[in-house]
Write the structure tokens for this entry.
Amino acid sequence: MRELKALVTGINGFAGSHLAEYLLCEGVEVFGMLRPGRSIAKIGSLRYAITLYEVDLTEAPEVAKVIKEIKPDLIFHLAAQAAVGRSWEDPQSTLTNNIIGQLNVLQAVIAADIDPKILILGSKDEYGMLYPEELPIKEENPLRPTNPYGVSKVAQDMMGYQYFLSHGLGCVRVRPFNHLGSRQSEEFVVPSFAKQVAEAEAGLREPVLRVGNIEVKRDFTDVRDMVRGYYLALLKGEPGEVYNIGSGTMTPLKSVLDFFLNHSKVALFVEQDPSRLRPGEVMESVCDYSKFRAKTGWQPEIPLEQTLGEVLEYWRKRIKE
């Protein structure tokens, strides 16, 4: 039996690099797309085991050429502008990158006349505004996005469903909740905490940890558990269906902050930074992932404290370097 061939868009990103690592361990032949000129530092030595293509996903002919050449069995479409804060600053590029990029991938599959399983990556931000009685969130919950990133993900989600209905593409849709780990950008809240602690320990900043709204509660999963879920979604998930993926546990952000304060080697003060506050902030979010567990057998395995400790060590190492 020949190896499965997997194409990962955004392979040089946070989740993409972890997914590539996991797929190689599973004996999958991995191909990756990344924007021209972008760093491949997150891939590290894995780059020698992967075939990489520099492609602008908004350029349809380039995308079509690569997909026709590879003829992948699995497509993990992870490339996206994923920072909610940045989506407020530049909603146009968020919508263009996320929607047009996916459109070009799906059109390329049709043009190549192939039948891969395709991961359509939605987000918990599709659900947006929630009412207490709706928790934990099931897949049938109304979608009420409260930021431009969430809107782009609703569009990607529905596009995947439409291409399944209209063209018979093997689109499996997932809505991942917050995931954490090494290599995540400091634009996101948890690595931002860790980086600030590491900088304060190294004497590179004053001993003040600047935060946004720490009263929110979130569903956190280790990125390694999450990418294992992405693989299972394509192996065992049903095309056309949508699945929540998350820990099913709601954690106060304040307790995550306390972890970093307690593990800091220097005493830190906490100060709210108005620039870190977001309009339309959803206060509580947690998923019901029972549908995905029943279909694939997936469950999260890595404890949150282990993940947080590894994120802190990752940033200590980066700051030291």
Q: What stands out?
A: The radius of gyration is 19 Å.
